[in-house]
Amino acid sequence: MCALSNKSDYTSKKNFIALQQLLHSREKEITQLKHDLRTPVTSIQLIAEFIINNSSDDINDHKEKLAIIIECCQQINTQLEHSPMHDIAL
User: Fold this and answer.
1) What angle do CA 83, 84, 88 make, to 5 degrees?
2) I need a labelling partner for 82 at 20 to 30 A (CA). Which of 2, 28, 51, 56 fits?
3) Got the DSSP string for 25-56?
4) Position 79 in a domain
5) 13 in a domain, yes or no?
6) Could you list the residue range(s) of the whole structural domain that residue 57 is in?
7) Using H for helix, E for strand and C for coil, what is the string for 51-63?
8) In angstroms, rounded to a whole number, what is the distance separating the alpha carbons of residues 15 and 5?
9) Based on the structure, what is the number of domains in the chain?
10) Please, which residues have CB within 8 angstroms of residue 29's CB and are 6 or more apart in sequence?
């Protein structure tokens, strides 16, 4: 009975370690995905802001569309910042 218990404990520990490794791997993937999304979104936002701030009055028709782009970028970045994976230390 003792040998069975030890084998069961070993299997449980092995399964626990495997689950921990899987979770850690998934956390790393999510962190990388967030980074991969944040970088181009921030670039798009900065370009739209630059166009609005450094344009002549003749592109007023486009300013509304650029403002929408900026707002969408800000929403995406806010969601990325406040996602559950943001506070997990790897």
Assistant:
1) 115
2) 51
3) HHHHHHHHHHHHHHHHHHHHHHHHHHHHHT--
4) yes
5) no
6) 27-87
7) HHHCCCHHHHHHH
8) 15
9) 1
10) none
Can you read off the two tokens belonging to residue 31?
A: 């962190």
> What is the spatial distance between Cα 16 and Cα 14, in angstroms, rounded to a whole number?
5
User: Whole-model pTM?
Assistant: 0.52
What is d(CA 72, CA 59) in angstroms, rounded to the nearest whole number? 20
Question: Residue 45's CB: how many other CB atoms inside 10 A?
Answer: 19
pLDDT recorded at residue 3: 53
Determine what percent of the chain is predicted with pLDDT higher than 90.
12
Residue 20 inside a domain? The answer is no
Domain membership of residue 74 (yes or no) is yes
pLDDT per position as a tens digit, 71-89:
888 888 888 787 765 554 4
Q: The tokens of 89 are what?
A: 């230390």
